Amino acid sequence: MPIPKAELHLHIEGTLEPELAFQLAHRNNITLPYPDVQTLRDAYSFTDLQSFLDLYYRLMDVLRTEADFHDLATAYLTRAAAQGVRHAEIFFDPQAHTQRGIPLETVIDGLTSALDTSLQDHGISTHLILCFLRDQSAQEAMDTLDAARPHLHHITAVGLDSAEVGNPPEKFTEVFQAAADLGLRRVAHAGEEGPATYIWNALNHLGAERIDHGIRCMDDPELITHLATTQTPLTVCPFSNVRLRAVPTLDQHPLPAMMDAGLLVTVNSDDPAYFGGYVHDNYLGLQHHLGLTDEQLRTLARNSFTASFLTPERRDALI
Ligand code: ADE
Ligand code: ZN
To answer: Where does the record place the site Important for catalytic activity (predicted)?
Structure first.
């Protein structure tokens, strides 16, 4: 049985398996530009973050109705339960849907209809994290936050994702402040492809409480010391880093060095349908390629609960 863990870096749209994409395309009378599941899966060969994002956004076109979002979330929860996930903090990208004419309510109602019964159905508690697309304007992010106001009881935090380089965190200072004023927690992707300065800026300008990815902190000794001292969590995604070529091979992944430096590291799957495995598969990959010990895997699992936004009561019950 996989070790119990939390998953803190998971894009629900990145759990869209090719089989489900074809099912939803059929249900919605959409013709995908791929003849079959295998041809689509074969297209999952990426050179960098942007080459992945191009396919990720294109394939989302099959997500049209509340039932589609419900089925997407249910499929993830079923797989996550088998991977030992007991708590999941799930990203979604509202702008990727509203810009295609899908109402925000459709997205949120579909997702929450699955998440609301997840503890009973799958033994997994969940939080939702609304992400702003950093390659869109700051005004569009603010409009998205405004549109989400009636749904804030479903939302725990805001995040920042999509194309990193050239879209630094400080572009979104105002909307992150507005989110904090609404009582939302804050996380941000930083230091995936972008430089260590983006991590500093996510902390200092956005008030990010967790850094998603953050692997480029290893380029900046002062930042390593700061992150270790403050025990700021980093949600690292090893398979993603290799597939998007942020790291050449799993054997060369900096995760062991990050742990040795005293960082609060967690392991996550990012977009598991695209990157070759779910969260426990990432744990096993690290064990196999980097020789992580059972004790180190237990530390990573414990870190995942420590780094979560769970109440102290449920956190203590899970650790
Ligand atoms: N959106 C989905 N996956 C992402 C990633 N790994 N980095 C940035 N944005 C994303
Ligand atoms: Zn991500």
So the answer is: 213
